[in-house]
Amino acid sequence: MRDTRESRLLLVLLIAIAFALITVDIRGGEDSPVDGARQGAATVFGPIESGVSAAVGPVGNAVSAIRDSGERHDRLAALEQENAALKARLGSDDRSRSRLKQLDKMLKIAGQGQYGIKGAEVIAIGAAQGFSWTITIDVGAKDGIKRDMTVLNGDGLVGRVTTVGPETATVLLASDPDFTVGTRMESGDELGFASGQGDRPLRVELLNGKAEVKKGDRLVTFGSQADRPFVPGVPVGVVSRVDPSGGGLTRTLYVTPYTAFTQLDIVGVVVEAPKKDPRDTVLPPKPKPTPRPTVTVTVTPSPEAPVDGQNQQEQ
Asked: Of 20, 105, 130, 273, which one is least surrounded by beta carbons within 10 A?
């Protein structure tokens, strides 16, 4: 429509009529004279609005679904992060519980033997000294560690200190072929020397070639002069095999060590020796023998067979 004087007058007239109809509708209330026209318009345009709503509704729902999907994805990602953190915390707790258990066992041994120990953590295995069985621990000269000190853990003898730095130290394990420690049999005075054999049992040479020894007997450290490098009474291991006595001056035993040298974590360096030999008090309790079930066999007698004479009379 062209912008002319007539068009402007028509627009003003339409606006005036609209205001007049609004005024009449408001004053008329439910009896408004334009109510019929409104219902007619609803009848005509209602299906069109419903169709438009049905057509546009899926789009709106899709937009809402996308928005909700993004929110769900964020919540899922947050839950996954929480689960990962929880698993990490549980893993850490498991290790903490394991370490506390190791520490508790070691402190128990220290208390029973009256050893003054300095706790340490294994930070390296097999240091650069060739193929020796060694570990590196996180304590050194600053912590009062010296060469030729006994090292133990909650199970028994670990080894001895060989090299000391300001903050770390190297320990030669009892499994090393160059390792030798004096031993004493439990509940006796049979002495010997145990040597490492790598991942095989320790080899022990008893000084008495006629000593009575059997599988399952246990050994502890005999101790050294001035308690260096070994303090007495530290559990060494259990006899797993005894070579037949050949009438020699010594007798050979093979001993399974108490300590698992490939699973070391928390250890203790004995910085103060006991005032007296603890003897066998540090050894763990002996395992109780497993009772063997008793099998009773009951024989039920079979009926007696008839005598031949009786059979003939019955016939």
From this structure: 130
